[in-house]
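Q: Could you fold this chain for me?
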Amino acid sequence: MDLILNEKQYIEKMLELGDCNPKDLGANIALLTRYMYQEKYTQKEIYNGIEEFASKVDSDFDINNWYSFIDKCIGKAKKRDLLNIDYIPITQKELDTIKEIKNPARERLAFTLLVIAKFNNLKSETNNNWINYSMDVYFNLARVTCKVDDRPYMIYDLKELGLVEVSKKITRFNIRITFVDNESDPVLKITDMRELGYQYQNLGPKSKIKLCKRCGKPYKVKYSKGGSPYCTDCQNKSAKDETKLITCDCCGKEFIAVSKNNRSVLCSECQQKNDRKNHRKRQARYMAQK
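A: Sure. Below is the predicted structure, expressed as structure tokens.
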């Protein structure tokens, strides 16, 4: 699952587009549960909302198998708010340190590790520049391709340069970034944790990185002129379902919908509020009939 700076914004975009990788369904259900709990949904409304969303992702989804998991997520939601990080600040001193590596692949990897460490620092004040994700996360985000067995050696190269420290515990592969600069003003603000290797590779005014008009994901433009305004994933989806912009009748915010959708007049947030209002009305009528 993606590392997310603004979890509320992420969930609302996911509901608006109706997109979710089936592999990330559990993680997204956990996030959606916290979102609905903190938006004051009742427990029944949370179950119903998750069932409606997850059934669109997986036709075999059975809410009965998820009650225990959702209850645990509700318990965690009481202790932790949704993340709301505007950006990850990167300083010139940090960029200069990375440039001294003089190896493009290792530079992208070092930049990625730095961004993730500063992300963790913003999540927890006591983190102190440590990261502990799988190797797949680091190398995929950095856009570094190599044999799986070679990955630890690339981390070791950064260790030899004094850029990282590795945990002494054999059972866990924790990494601490040693060149984090929290004193200087930022010269770069990372607003999306996806495609960090591309973002580093294309710094400057001639950057070939654009933001997808559909999902907001950074993607690399292959051609200097023209080209699609969508990332590869959204190009494949838009080829099947063209989208259009609709202005919400309630709040006036524009939102994306499939071109064939002639029914939606409310954005996801206003639609949820409207659904909850109608649900309470139905409950009130039901109770009055008793």
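A (continued): Residues 268-289 form the longest helix (22 residues).
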